[in-house]
Every structure is written in C-alpha cells, then in structure tokens.
Amino acid sequence: MKNRIMALVLAGCIIAAGLVGCGKKEAEAPAKQADNTEEAAQESIEGGKGTEISGSLEVAVFSNGDLMDQFWDKVVAEFNSLNPDCEVTLIANPKIEESMRPRFVSDNPPDVYYMGGNANMDEQALTGDRKFMKLNDFYETAEALGYGGLLKDHMGAEIFNEQNGDIYGMSFAYSVWGYYYNVGMAEEYGWEPPVNWDDFCELAPKIKEQGIYPIIHQGKYPDYMGYGLMQAGIAVDNGKETLVSMGNLDADTYRSEEVLKAWQKYETIRENDWAPPSALSLTHTEAQMEWLQNKAFLIPCGNWLEGEMANDIPEGFQMAFRPSFWFDSDNTPVYVGASCRISIAENTKNPEAAKAFLQVIFSKNITKAVAEYGMGIPCMNDELEGVELPPSNASVLQQVAKGEVKIINEVGGSGNFEPYAEQRTIINNNIAAVLGGQKTAEQALEDVAKEVERIAGDESIVKVTIR
After folding, report:
1. pLDDT mean across residues, the chain
2. Which one of 321, 393, 411, 446 has the largest count of C-beta atoms within 10 Å of its C-beta?
C-alpha cells in the first residue's frame, strides 16, 4: 500500500496555521466536545451502519494516562450509540502486552487489540504466527461513517501492518519523534534550541554553567534516544536508505562509519556529563517529570508528551517541539513518523462486531477525538473544524508547511525501521550500555551486528522486507 502522509500533512497545514500559539493545555481541549451532541451522533449514524451487531466484544488497548483513557471511553460510547445490542468489555492499561501475549499464545485472545508502548514489539511475531485477521476486504469495502463513501477513499495516511500484500492492522493516527525544549529556560538565558549537532555541542556547556543538564532521557527505554534522535540523524546525514538497510538485517550497515558516527554521539554526551547519570534508571514518565521540574533543557520524545503528562505540567510551563538535532550535514531535518496499529484476532468470537468497532475508530466523530485527545495526527483526511490541535501537532504541521522539516514514515512496523523484537532489544540494550559507560560505541555496534546476523540466519523468525 502506498503511504500518503505528506498529503495529510499539507492539507492540515491550513488548520495548524490558525491554531498554533493557542495557550490551552491539551488536557482541557476535549472539554468542549467531551459528550457527543445529538447532531454529531446522528451524523455518524447517517454515515452508514452495517448489519445489526449483537453479542459481546472484548477490546484490549494500550492506554497510558487519563487523557488516553478518556479517548478509549469515547470510542466505546460511540460504538455503543451505533450498536446498543453489543456489550463491550474494555481492557486498557500501559502494559497491555503482558496480559495479552499469553492469551494469544493460548488462542484465547481479545477480539480487538490496539498495540502501543512496548506492545508493538509483538506485532511482527503475532502476525507471523497468523494471530491476526486479514483486513484487506474490510479496507476495500468498509463505509466511512460520517463522511460518506468508502473508508479507503478518505484516508490521508495509509499506515498498515502489512505482510506480502495483506493487511493485518491499521493505524488511525500517527505520531512523530523529535525533542521538546523548555521555552521558559530558552527565553531566560537566551538559548536557541539546537538545529544540528554542532549547535548542541556549542550550547551544552552554557547550559551546564547554569547548573542545568543539557538533556535528560528515559533511560529504562533507550528507544527514546534511538527513535527520537539517532534514527532521524542517520536519515538526515545518510538518507532513509541507511535505515532501510538496517531494518533489512544488513549487518555491514551497522558496522559502517556512518552508523558508528551516530552512535559515538552517545559517548560524547556521557563523557561530558551532559545528561544526569540517574537518567539511566528512569522510566519515560519519571524522566519527563524531571524535565518538567526544570532539571534539563531538552528531552527526546514523540509529540504525545503533552497528552501523556497533561496532569503534571506545572502552571505556566511552556514547551516546544522540534525535529532531531543528531546530524552533522546541512540537509533538511526530518521527523520519523510512527504509528501503532489496531488489529482483529484471527479467531475472534464476534468478527462482525470487531469490524464494526474498527469502522467506528475511523468515523468522523472519532477522527475529531483523535485530535482533541492528543492521540496523534489523524490518518483520515478531515478539516477538523472547531478542533484545537495540541501545540506540538500544530507545530509539526507548520514546520512541514514552511519546508523546515521533512517527514519520513516508518516502514517496518511499529518498530521504526527495526521490524524484529530481537533486533530492537539488542539495540536498546547497547544504547544503554554506551550511555552508561559499559561499552564503547564500536563495541556496542559489533554486538548489534552479530545479533542481526543471527536473526537473519534464524529460519524460525518470519522475515519481512521493508522499503
């Protein structure tokens, strides 16, 4: 399938231009439309309703915070308004994979599964084991509730879990990786957020002089440094093709000077004490809390931080979102687009209800909720009339409109150019080892390359080709 992320982004720029600079916190945005009005509900119903849906439906989703919980509650409420005879059981938590993995293995899965957080590591394995239903027919024939016509004709970004031309999961929103900086600090000290690595290296000592760390990171989840900063830097300096080669298990790419140069930047941060040593033991939310408490100027993250930390952002705290600075060339910065997929279990007990639930996820009312609740940038083309985008999303769209940044989409599944769980694990472990001083960048990459060679030769691991 052809991804058309740029089409959505450019279409959204008109909206973003009028919205950026609005000071309302993301947690407050949904209040305006927290409940469906009769008109909105009728709009969805008139958009098309399939056969009568009844029975029960179990939906398991990644959810990490009150705002995301509210989003999923809204989805269920919308589904219930269209299908009152179907009882939905919603399981929502930030470690959904821990409870769902054994259920898939024992062939007792939930009917619908939304992967997020670390759960996305299971996507390729579960797909390879034929645990998900093929969604090709659904994609081709489902009506677009509230829009009219077919769902596929209203999608601006087609981001799928796809193998051999078959669709096993669909994204309703996407996010981008980059970094946030503390606007108040920037204004107080006259600091300009770094555009490239030279900028960062020039700025970092000035920040340290003020008793502030230049950067903090989510040490228990090293992929924040990998996806948020390093991958995009490699793409800027060497092209997306380098990431594609890495995803396709080319061990020589991991041993290349280009990739080594990117990893050596971790050494520079460690050697100069530019990140707090305690960061290595912090979860994502713990590190983000430290950043919100003015312990550091920068933090790598995706554009969901505002929503994830909505209840913890101090009064008056201002943040802004930028693309990675992890590169040395004069090339245009990039955002790496990322997304989680929603899938239907192959042996779902209620396939028609499961398909109807996916149809609701892509409906007009829920597309608006995706934007309102900070779930990401909607995959559906929609003018989002009356919706205030989170500042980071509006900023991303503006930056793309001005030509300040490009978006490259992940192509290997939710692993951002790393389609295998084993591949992501060895990379994360070695990023942590370099940041912690246990290994040099060269030693770490050799360990990664050897594991990549092992994965490539393991016939029990279902292989995918990314492009």
Report:
1. 86
2. 393
Residues in Cβ contact with 228 at an 8 Å cutoff, skipping those fewer than 6 apart: 177, 178, 179, 300, 301, 302, 324
- Per residue in 298-334, pLDDT (tens digit) is 999 999 898 889 999 999 999 999 999 999 999 999 9
Tokens of 385: 């009339």
- The kind and range of the H/E element at 181 are strand 173-182
With 0-12 CB in 10 A as exposed, 13-18 as middle and 19+ as buried, what is 250?
middle
- C-alpha torsion 306→307→309→311, nearest 10: 110
Res. 25: pLDDT tops 50:
no
What residues contact 176, with CB distance under 8 A and at least 6 apart? 302, 303, 323, 335, 336, 337, 338, 377, 396, 407
Can you say how many angstroms the Cα of residue 441 is from the centroid of all Cα atoms in its chain?
26
Q: Print burial letters for 72-90: b (CB count within 10 Å at least 16), e (below 16).
A: bebbbebbebbbeebebeb
Residue 98 to residues 60, 93, 130, 146: CA-CA distances in angstroms? 12, 10, 19, 36
- Rounded Cα–Cα distance for residues 408 and 6 (Å): 9
Are 387 and 371 in contact, with CB atoms under 8 Å apart?
yes
Residue in this structure with the two tokens 């979860």, named with its chain if needed = 283
Contact 277, 290 (CB under 8 A): no
Asked whether the beta carbons of 333 and 231 are under 8 A apart, the reply is no
**Residue 200: strand, helix, or coil:** helix
77 CB-near residues (< 8 Å, 6+ apart): 36
Closest by CA to 365, choosing from 45, 11, 112, is 45
pLDDT single digits (tens) 406-440: 988 765 444 468 888 899 999 999 999 999 999 99
Q: Which two tokens stand for residue 135?
A: 């969604």
**Cβ(452)–Cβ(435) under 8 Å?**
no
Judge whether 452 and 249 are in contact, CB under 8 Å: yes
9-13, 330-334, 391-395, 462-466 — which is least confidently predicted?
A: 9-13
* Residues 6 or more apart whose Cβ sits within 8 Å of residue 137: none
